[in-house]
């Protein structure tokens, strides 16, 4: 039995940014993208995992020189197509390349390296962080975003809160900015001159984390309420649909009953019609017979009048009248 091949999911951040996946989701994506753009400092930028080229193009519009790399050839095709729609002044600032970070080579060093929504896809993220920092100028900036908390996705290999992310980042630089952007975590790092041991989470960061947990929990509670409301609407809609279906069933049953009654009436009418036709036929036959009798009677009456008006007829009539008189006299004598 053949199983359906799992397709690599397409990153649709560009579509989401322009509200093509919904207005609410678009607002969340723009909030995260604009934070990344604001945290990008300097003019020489490397975007690792540039996807459809949205961030490089936004930075290019600001006059920054951007190298965007992505391991996905489909992503580079999409980014290249999007870049062709930009002004020439933007196009000449942006270089797009299909490349794997671990094998990517360039002598250029950058003011800011972006690694947004990348680390959660990596089984050994420490190697990626070290490689990304190697492309920074001294004192350069690393901007990282990851999903905050559980975000089960086919290609996500880990869940990030704060401690693991700091363990991976703090050996290479100082945390300058820590931001919760809806359900994402954003970190800005300034590069150390040399690699150092990772540091534990500070009390301030624990306090920040608790606040972030509360905010995300409220987001979840809001979503639960919204889903319950939607479920209630769905249940009401289902009940209404069931009522409509029940009413339709009753109407169909009533229609079928009326159809049967109509058929029975039609049969009765057909039977009455046949009986009427039989009676009518008999009546017509009787009428024809009566007409024949009437015609014969009229003929006999005519003959009788003719006979009564003749001399012989008058004698016969007088004779019979005389006979009746004689008969009456005899009857009285008795």
TrEMBL record:
<protein>
    <submittedName>
        <fullName>Methyltransferase type 11</fullName>
    </submittedName>
</protein>
<dbReference type="InterPro" id="IPR029063">
    <property type="entry name" value="SAM-dependent_MTases_sf"/>
</dbReference>
<dbReference type="GO" id="GO:0032259">
    <property type="term" value="P:methylation"/>
</dbReference>
<keyword id="KW-0808">Transferase</keyword>
<dbReference type="Pfam" id="PF13489">
    <property type="entry name" value="Methyltransf_23"/>
</dbReference>
<keyword id="KW-0175">Coiled coil</keyword>
<dbReference type="GO" id="GO:0008168">
    <property type="term" value="F:methyltransferase activity"/>
</dbReference>
<feature type="coiled-coil region">
    <location>
        <begin position="227"/>
        <end position="282"/>
    </location>
</feature>
<keyword id="KW-0489">Methyltransferase</keyword>
């Amino acid at each position: 039995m053949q199983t359906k091949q799992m397709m690599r999911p397409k990153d649709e951040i560009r579509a989401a940014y322009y509200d093509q996946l919904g207005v609410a989701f678009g607002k969340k994506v723009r909030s995260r993208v604009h934070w990344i753009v604001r945290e990008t400092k300097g003019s020489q930028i490397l975007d690792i995992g540039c996807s459809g080229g949205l961030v490089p193009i936004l930075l290019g519009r600001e006059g920054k020189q951007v190298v965007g790399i992505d391991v996905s050839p489909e992503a580079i095709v999409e980014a290249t197509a999007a870049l062709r729609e930009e002004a020439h002044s933007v196009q000449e600032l942006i270089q797009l390349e299909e490349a794997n970070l671990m094998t990517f080579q360039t002598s250029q060093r950058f003011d800011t390296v972006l690694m947004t929504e990348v680390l959660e896809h990596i089984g050994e993220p420490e190697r990626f962080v070290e490689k990304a920092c190697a492309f920074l100028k001294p004192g350069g900036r690393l901007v990282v975003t990851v999903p905050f908390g559980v975000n089960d996705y086919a290609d996500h290999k880990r869940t990030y809160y704060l401690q693991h992310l700091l363990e991976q980042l703090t050996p290479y630089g100082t945390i300058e900015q820590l931001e919760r952007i809806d359900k994402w975590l954003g970190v800005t790092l300034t590069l150390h001159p040399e690699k150092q041991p990772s540091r534990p989470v500070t009390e301030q960061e624990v306090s920040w984390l608790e606040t972030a947990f509360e905010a995300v929990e409220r987001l979840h509670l809001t979503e639960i309420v919204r889903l319950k409301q939607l479920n209630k609407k769905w249940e009401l809609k289902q009940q209404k649909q069931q009522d409509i279906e029940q009413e339709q069933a009753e109407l169909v049953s009533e229609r079928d009953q009326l159809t049967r009654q109509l058929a029975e009436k039609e049969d009765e009418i057909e039977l009455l019609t046949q009986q009427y036709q039989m009676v009518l036929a008999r009546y017509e036959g009787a009428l024809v017979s009566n007409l024949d009798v009437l015609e014969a009677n009229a003929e006999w009456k005519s003959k009788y009048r003719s006979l009564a008006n003749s001399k012989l007829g008058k004698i016969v009539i007088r004779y019979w009248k005389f006979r009746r008189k004689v008969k009456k006299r005899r009857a009285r004598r008795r």
